[in-house]
Design goal:
mainly alpha; 1 helix; rod-shaped
């Protein structure tokens, strides 16, 4: 069902997804700190 070449693509996609999520969490934390400081 899964092709040989789709394996490497999913690895790259997973790395990209992890990278994006890591930064999203960082910015969410930063924004939360800013809002908390303003409150």
């Amino acid at each position: 069902m899964i092709k040989e070449d789709s394996g490497s693509n999913s690895v790259v996609g997973f790395q990209m997804w992890t990278f994006v999520n890591a930064h999203a969490d960082y910015y969410k934390m930063k924004i939360s700190c800013i809002i908390f400081n303003l409150a």
